Structure formats: structure tokens, C-alpha cells
Automatic annotation (TrEMBL):
Protein name: FtsX-like permease family protein
Pfam families, sorted: FtsX (PF02687)
Ranges where the record places region Disordered: 271-292
Annotated keywords: Cell membrane, Membrane, Transmembrane, Transmembrane helix
Species assigned in the record: Streptomyces olivaceus
């Protein structure tokens, strides 16, 4: 019999066996189809969501042929790259032009002859909304022109047709509460416009903007500013021209070179898609290529390897159980003269058949689900698909991978079936095999080597070594799982009946239990690795973040030109619209000099200034700034650098932000309520000191022996005749030494405040004070509607007050990512547990029948299934958590290496690189998922035993 004939017979037997055991076949095909489905959908989504060069051009210039705009350096010759008009270069030997760069560049003169063009220009504006007032850019462009198609699309209503009409993006319409037919007012020129349509930008669905016809907003605003000095026109964006070439010729490279001669840069669709040779590009070679980041490739390699491994581990036990249930059939093949190779071929053919079915079903379902959920994916990603991009080679590779995976899953059961004697197969006896001692030893060695390689890759900065070491470590741990599972059987000696049987069953059937544990481990390891790295980077970003206000607070501040009435109305706006809690804390500025309310001139010195003099030397000076800082940075560790950065002496050196006062010294007048609501200093002694007239110093680096040096430069208003008479020299300087209450060092980084001075102390020192605003504690972050309503109230109050809320650190939305990862790992874990429990039930039906025969109550079946599932899931989760920490820690070591290099060149740059454990994710996986899996397994297991024929 030829090899082809033998395989044809094996495939026919595999097909019939699959049809005979439909439940197991569907289960195996589904386990192969699910990863194929996921990878296919991810590939289609990634390829479709990544904009091509043509789609990027459409997002910038719509359906136009080109975009012309001034280079911003005046009417001088410039050079550009064919596909990049963002970077401007100068001819060799030329330098950046000096003098007035505002000289007009005649862009229309650079347009190709016979071409048609429209203009585009933007201006930031404050507009009225249904809730109040909001800031948004207004772009003047004819959105109805065909040249804008693909870049701006109509969603509802129609495009503006007159100067009194305006269109809003879907994002702005949702945030503002406006819809088609509503009216809004642009507050600068004071003109009202009717919203005629809602549009979207396919490349940026979350964009919040307004669109009007050219001349509808900027020109009236400029006229109003010329007529009324109280009207201010903000910085207007550069004017650009969208161009359509004559007769469909487009804009050529020669047209671009001619425009560059006049100081105009061009983005041309024709040239970008078909660039000229470098010999025709004057700027060729002047751009610096970006260094590729190998982390994405390493991550993709790791995820692909783990997905392949997981399919093999999940489907392998199913083939093993199928081979055991078909052992009589396989024995008949051998008794009829079939070789061991042909017996193996029958089992491998099962993997080929089910792998093919699962691959076709998974790929088809991947296509269908991507099309079905396309709108949801587009909304989540924030951009529309240009088209559903299919790379046939990649889809074919995924299909081949699924097919090969099915065969690999059947490989180990095929080898075992081929080694089994014909007598054992025909009689149903399994025989006995000793556990291999080589595999655990080899697994331990590979585990240690993989961990060492991953850590070395982290220390050397190689992401590929990290990925390779992580995969090796997980493979090594796989080799140790049979020993770990065998050890579990010894733990049940003193446990009740069902958990004892579950543990011993898991230990006795290691060939079925170990792959399922490994599959759970693989899913959990990937999720824990990503979750740990994400949580760590989020903690790093939160540490590096320097907020403008203390977290959970909001502040209303007023310009020094504002009146008490305006400040009162601003406070009322905050108290009415914001979710404030607790008492209001009022703050005042303090300065030395004439009693003027306006700080004019540099640093307010025309009205005097008040300074805190920082002592020199010792703990008062920051060693990370000044001479010797770089030498020190070369010697210290990241932990020591962190301690120095957080010291009071360095915290002001690193970051100084003006929030409440008009200078850098951050001295404010306030009371005990400011300590409580804003500084969060719950210290009765500090409040008592303020009440007694003693200032509270938040940064101890400015104190020496409990006192500070306060320097007051008294300057006097030239219009103050009495001040002129008393101080003909114009300014005097006094230095007072004040006793202060020094707060703990942890309050040195309080945003906007360095020292709080009681008002009576300021008066005793001859200083002047003026209202600066108020601070409130919040119960939650205000919504967009609440912000807009409060801004509208501020506008009615005079517009000299503003409301600030605490800024959030970057990456604050990563909680959603961690939740998705935990849910993904939980779903895979539950699937693996369900499969393992089903196989265990099918494989141990004889044992269950025996239990019923000796009088075990019906509930034993349920509880046994639950504990079998619990054993697999809990073991896999614990091992997966340990395995997932290896790549996460190694990648963080790579980040630490990069941070240390940056710190040693710039000593004031933070090198803090924490490793943060994602405890909520780990708790969910180690507690909730095993408990849920066990309960579901018990609930879905029948307590009745089917009547079976007596054996023999």
C-alpha cells in the first residue's frame, strides 16, 4: 500500500471518528478555531486601522491634489522632502534668515497655472453652548467643496452655505449639547451662527472643532478688534491653500521645487505616492532616520509563540482522550497488519482533519466578526477604516499555522498510541509507565537559563533577549508541571473525600492535567506580564507628574485687575456648578511697596516684591544642580537619586510653577482652612501657629534654626505723591528674619505654595495684600457640562477670573486596559478549565460509576467536578503569575537602564523606574476566577449516573 493510500485511509478513519464523537470534535475544532479567529481579526483590524500613505494624505488634504503653505521663514528659498513638508531645510551653505520673518510670502503666486484652490485658516475661540461656554478651534474652509471629501464628511444636516452658518464635529456637538438648527455665539466678535450640520473627520473621530466659510469669523473678529481695544484677536493659524491641478495633471515635483524657491512648502499626493529619485531631491539625506524599536516585534513574537503553545496544550489532551477511547479501533488496525507508523498516522490525521475544520471556521468567523464589529472598532480606535485591508499572505500564514497546530496537538498522543501494544489496545488495559525524571531536570535547567537570559536582556537593553528568555522560562516551567501536579496528590491525605479524589486524579492523570494547567499558565502569564508592565509604567508616570493643583481640588483665581464683585461672582459660579465639598479657603497675594493692585513690569518689581532667601550649603542646596552634579549622578544609584530629588532642597529646583502668585516665591496669605482643604496638612499645631501669627513654611530648605530670611523690595507707584515725598530714591530693601512653623518634608512639593503667612503678620511687616482667589475640595471630577456652565458664569462676571482643576497624570486610563487583560485571561482560563473538566469526566466515567456503586451520594459527582476544575485553574493561575513576572521585571530593567543613562547626562531628570504589582488583576485571577470555575463546573455537572452495561 502506497503512502498516499495509507494517509487516505487514515484521513477517512479520522473523519468518521470525528463524526462519531461530535462533542469532542467540536470542542477540539473550537479550541483551534478560537485563536485563529482572534489572530485573523487582529490582523485585519491592525492592517485596516493603520493608515496607508494615501490615507494619511487624504486626512490632510482631502481629495485635493496638494496643499500649499508658507514655510514660516519668509520669502527665502527652502528645501523639503517629497513626502514630508513638515521639516524645512536650507540649501547647503545657507543659514536661517535673520530679520523680520513676518514678511509676506506670496503663496498664490506659487500655485500651478490653471489650478483651482480654496483657503483654510483656523483660530482658537470661545463659543456659547447649551451648557455654557467652551473653548474650541474654528476653521474657515468651504467644507462643501469636493476637495474636502475624504477628510471631512457630513453626518447630519448640510454644509454651511453662508457667513451666518457653521458646522460642528460630532465630538463637539456631543460635548456642547448642540444639534442641527441650534445657534451659538463666537464670543470674540460677538457674532451668532446657526449650526447647519454635524460633520466628522474620518481620521480623528474625537475631534472637537467648528467649521465656517472663509471670511465668516476671522475677518469680523479682526474688524471688531480694530474698532474696540477691549476685543482681542488671538493668534491666527497659518493660511493654507488646497489645490486641484488643471486637467487632472496634479502637482508635480517641478511645481514643488518652484514653490520652494519662494518660501512655500507643498504636500502633493502625486509626488508623495510616486517620489522622484534622490538625485532630484536637494534635501535628500538631510533627515535623520528614526531608530526602529524592536519591542513591538519582540512582543509579537512572544505573543505568537504563546498562542501556538496554548493551542497545542489545550487541544493535546483532547486528542489523548480520543486516542484512548479509540484504542480498540487502533488495536484492530495493528492486528490487521498495520504498522506503528500507520497507527500514528490515524491519530495525526485526526489532528489534520480537526485542524483544517477549525482553521477554516476560525478564519471565516474572523472576517465576519471584523466586518460586524467594524463600527465599534472604529469608534474605539478613533478613526475610520479607509478600507478593509487584507494581506492574503498573512491570512494564509495564519491558516497554515492553525493547521500545523492541530497536527502538533495530536503528535504526542500519536506517539503514545504507536507505542502501545496491540494486546493492551484490544483489552482496554492502559499499562503503567514511570514518570520521566529527565523532563523535570531539563525543565528546571531551561527555566533557570530562561530567567537568566531575560534578566540579562533587561540589563543590556535587548528586548529580543527578554522575549526569548521569557519563552524559554515558560517552556522550562512547562517541563516542571508534571512533577508539580504529582506533588499535588500528596496534599490531599488529610482532606475530605472529594478534594482528595480530585487531587489524586489530577496526579494520576498527569498527561491530561499538566497540559491544561500549562494552558491556563500561558494565558495568565501573558496577561500578568502586560498588566505588571502597564501598572509599573502608570506608577512611573504618576510619580513624574507634577500637578498644577493638589489632587481633588479646584481653584478660582482672579487677575490682579479684577474687582471684589467679580471674584464674588466667580466663587458663586464654582459653588453652584462644581461638586465642591467642605469649607472654602480664600487666598491672597502679598507684596512689598506701594498699595497697587497690579503687578506691572518684570516680576512685579514696579510694585515691589517679596522673596524667601534660601540659605546656602548643607541640606539647603540641591546637589543635583550646579557644579559637580554630573559627577555625582555618575556615582549614585536610582534609589539615592530618587531620595535627593524628593528632598526639599531639590524639589523647587526641579519644578517651579506659578499658580496663585505673580512671582516664583509662592508666598500666600491664608488661614487654617487652606491647610486643611488644599495642603492636606492635618496638624493642629500648624493651625495654631497661623492663628498666633506665625507663618507656616512648607519647604524646610528655606529655614535655618526655625527662622527664614524674608527680603522685601519696596518699590512705589510713580503716581503716588506721598510715596514720592517719603522715598525720593524710588525703592528700598529690607530683610526681616521671621520665626516660622516648619511643616514635614513631604509637603515641600505642594503645588503653588511655599509659605502661608497670616494676614496680621503681613500688615505688621508693612506689606500689602490683595485677593487672589479661593480653593475648594471636590467630591469628584467635574463633567464637561458643569465646566461649560461655570465658564459661562465667569464670562458674565467679567472674564477676569478663571477656574483650574488638578491635571491628571498621563496613562490614568490604563485601568481599562488592566480590566480587559484580566477579563481575557479569565475567559481563557474558564475555557481551559471547562475543557479539562469535561475530559476528566469522560476519562474517569468508570471511577464515577464505581463511586455510585459503593454508595456515594449523587452530589459527589458535582463536588468532584468542581474540585477537579479548581485544582487545574488555581495551579495554572499561580504558576502563570510567577511566569508573567519574568518578562515584566526584565523589561522594567531595560527601562531602568535607559532612565539611568538619561539621568547621568541630565541630573535633574527622574530615574525612578518602579515595578508595581497589579494586585487587583492578580486578586481577580487567583480568587475570583478559580472560585467561579469550580462553581460553574459543579453546577453544570449532572448528579445522576447513566445506567451502564456491566463490563465483561
Amino acid at each position: 500500500m502506497s503512502a498516499f493510500t495509507g494517509w487516505r485511509a487514515a484521513l477517512r478513519m479520522a473523519r468518521r471518528d470525528a463524526l462519531r464523537a461530535r462533542g469532542r470534535s467540536v470542542l477540539v475544532a473550537a479550541m483551534i478555531a478560537l485563536p485563529v479567529l482572534g489572530v485573523t481579526a487582529v490582523d485585519l483590524t491592525y492592517r485596516s486601522i493603520q493608515p496607508t500613505l494615501a490615507e494619511e494624505l487624504t486626512a490632510k488634504i482631502g481629495s485635493a491634489d496638494a496643499r500649499f503653505e508658507a514655510a514660516g521663514v519668509g520669502p527665502v528659498k527652502v528645501e523639503q522632502l517629497p513626502a514630508d513638508a513638515e521639516e524645512v531645510y536650507f540649501p547647503d551653505g545657507a543659514s536661517y534668515p535673520e530679520g523680520d520673518l513676518e514678511d509676506a510670502v506670496d503663496v498664490p503666486a506659487a500655485l500651478p497655472k490653471g489650478s483651482r484652490s480654496i483657503t483654510e485658516q483656523s483660530v482658537p475661540a470661545s463659543v456659547t453652548t447649551r451648557h455654557g461656554v467652551a473653548d474650541t478651534p474654528v476653521t474657515e474652509v468651504d467644507t462643501g467643496d469636493p476637495m474636502l471629501r475624504g477628510r471631512i464628511e457630513l453626518v447630519k444636516g448640510r454644509y454651511p452655505k453662508s457667513g451666518a452658518e457653521i458646522a460642528a464635529t460630532a465630538g463637539f456637538a456631543e460635548a456642547s449639547g448642540l444639534s442641527v438648527g441650534d445657534r451659538l455665539t463666537v464670543r470674540g466678535p460677538g457674532r451668532s451662527y446657526t449650526v447647519t450640520g454635524v460633520v466628522e473627520l474620518p481620521a480623528d473621530l474625537e475631534k472637537k472643532s467648528l467649521y465656517a466659510l472663509p471670511g465668516a469669523v476671522i475677518a469680523p473678529w479682526r474688524e471688531a478688534a480694530d474698532d474696540d481695544e477691549n476685543v482681542v484677536l488671538p493668534q491666527v493659524g497659518e493660511l493654507a491653500w488646497l489645490v486641484k491641478g488643471s486637467s487632472g495633471a496634479g502637482v508635480t515635483w517641478q511645481d514643488i521645487l518652484a514653490a520652494n524657491e519662494k518660501g512655500v512648502v507643498v504636500t502633493s499626493r502625486q509626488v508623495a505616492l510616486n517620489p522622484p529619485p534622490d538625485s532630484q531631491v536637494p534635501a535628500a539625506g538631510k533627515s535623520r532616520p528614526e531608530e526602529p524599536d524592536d519591542r513591538l516585534a519582540a512582543a509579537a513574537l512572544t505573543v505568537g509563540a504563546m498562542a501556538l503553545l496554548e493551542i497545542v496544550l489545550l487541544a493535546g489532551p483532547a486528542f489523548a482522550v480520543g486516542a484512548r477511547r479509540s484504542r480498540r479501533q487502533l488495536g484492530l488496525v495493528g492486528s490487521c497488519g498495520g504498522t506503528r507508523g500507520q497507527v500514528r498516522a490515524v491519530v495525526l490525521a485526526g489532528g489534520l482533519v480537526l485542524g483544517g475544520v477549525g482553521t477554516v471556521a476560525g478564519a471565516g468567523a474572523g472576517f465576519a466578526l471584523t466586518v460586524l464589529f467594524r463600527p465599534m472598532i472604529e469608534e474605539f480606535s478613533g478613526r475610520r477604516f479607509g478600507e478593509l485591508t487584507v494581506h492574503p499572505g498573512e491570512i494564509l500564514g495564519i491558516a497554515v499555522l492553525g493547521l500545523v497546530t492541530g497536527v502538533l496537538a495530536a503528535l504526542a498522543p500519536a506517539i503514545v498510541a504507536g507505542r502501545q501494544s496491540i494486546l493492551e489496545s484490544l483489552t482496554g488495559h492502559r499499562g503503567s509507565r514511570r514518570s520521566s525524571r529527565v523532563l523535570p531536570a531539563a525543565g528546571t535547567a531551561v527555566l533557570a537559563g530562561g530567567v537568566a537570559l531575560a534578566l540579562y536582556g533587561g540589563l543590556s537593553g535587548s528586548s529580543k533577549l527578554v522575549a526569548g528568555g521569557s519563552v524559554l522560562a515558560e517552556l522550562g516551567l512547562l517541563g516542571c508541571i508534571p512533577v508539580i501536579v504529582g506533588f499535588l496528590g500528596r496534599l490531599g491525605r488529610r482532606l475530605p473525600l472529594t478534594p482528595r479524589i480530585a487531587l489524586r486524579d489530577a496526579a494520576r492523570n498527569r498527561g491530561r492535567t499538566a497540559p491544561a494547567v500549562a494552558a491556563v499558565m500561558a494565558a495568565v502569564a501573558g496577561s500578568v506580564a502586560i498588566a505588571t508592565y502597564t501598572a509599573s509604567t502608570t506608577a512611573e508616570q504618576a510619580y513624574d507628574h507634577r500637578p498644577n493643583l493638589t489632587a481633588g481640588t479646584t481653584a478660582v483665581t482672579i487677575s490682579t485687575e479684577g474687582s471684589a464683585a467679580e471674584l464674588s461672582q466667580a466663587r458663586a459660579a464654582v459653588e453652584q456648578h462644581y461638586p465642591v465639598s467642605g469649607a472654602r479657603a480664600d487666598i491672597e497675594r502679598v507684596w512689598a511697596g506701594s498699595d497697587c493692585a497690579v503687578h506691572v513690569g518684570e516680576e512685579g518689581r514696579d510694585c515691589g516684591v517679596l522673596e524667601l532667601i534660601k540659605p546656602t550649603g548643607g541640606a539647603h542646596s540641591c546637589p543635583l544642580s550646579g557644579d559637580g552634579a554630573k559627577e555625582l549622578a555618575q556615582r549614585i544609584s536610582a534609589e539615592e537619586h530618587k531620595r535627593l530629588m524628593n528632598s526639599p532642597a531639590c524639589v523647587d529646583e526641579e519644578f517651579t510653577q506659578r499658580v496663585f502668585s505673580g512671582d516664583d516665591h509662592k508666598i500666600l496669605v491664608g488661614g487654617a482652612e487652606l491647610l486643611d482643604s488644599y495642603v492636606k496638612l492635618k496638624d493642629p499645631a500648624a493651625a495654631k501657629a497661623l492663628a498666633a501669627g506665625t507663618p507656616v513654611l512648607l519647604n524646610s530648605a528655606y529655614a535655618q534654626d526655625g527662622e527664614v530670611d524674608l527680603k522685601a523690595v519696596h518699590a512705589y507707584n510713580n503716581d503716588d505723591e506721598s510715596a514720592k515725598a517719603q522715598h525720593s530714591r524710588g525703592a528700598t530693601t529690607t530683610v526681616d528674619r521671621l520665626k516660622v512653623y516648619v511643616a514635614p518634608d513631604s509637603y515641600a512639593a505642594t503645588p503653588g505654595i511655599r509659605m502661608i503667612m497670616p494676614k496680621k503678620t503681613a500688615r505688621e511687616l508693612g506689606l500689602h495684600t490683595g485677593s487672589a482667589g479661593s480653593v475648594y475640595a471636590l467630591t469628584r471630577d467635574p463633567s464637561e457640562a458643569e465646566k461649560q456652565a461655570a465658564d459661562a458664569a465667569l464670562t458674565r462676571a467679567g472674564g477676569l477670573a478663571q477656574i483650574m482643576t488638578a491635571t491628571e497624570p498621563a496613562g490614568s486610563d490604563d485601568d481599562a486596559t488592566l480590566l480587559i487583560l484580566a477579563l481575557f485571561a479569565g475567559v481563557v482560563t474558564l475555557g481551559a478549565a471547562a475543557m479539562t473538566t469535561g475530559l476528566a469526566k469522560a476519562d474517569a466515567e468508570a471511577d464515577l460509576t464505581t463511586l455510585s456503586a459503593v454508595g456515594a451520594p449523587p452530589g459527589v459527582r458535582r463536588s468532584l467536578s468542581g474540585f477537579q476544575c479548581l485544582v487545574v485553574v488555581l495551579t495554572g493561575v499561580l504558576l502563570g503569575t510567577a511566569a508573567g513576572l519574568v518578562p515584566a521585571v526584565a523589561l522594567r530593567l531595560t527601562d531602568l537602564r535607559t532612565a539611568l543613562e538619561a539621568m547621568r547626562s541630565q541630573p535633574m531628570q527622574s530615574a525612578y523606574t518602579p515595578i508595581e504589582m497589579p494586585w487587583p488583576t492578580i486578586a481577580f485571577l487567583t480568587l475570583a476566577v478559580p472560585a467561579l470555575a469550580g462553581l460553574l463546573a459543579a453546577a453544570l455537572t449532572s448528579s445522576r449516573t447513566a445506567l451502564a452495561r456491566r463490563a465483561g
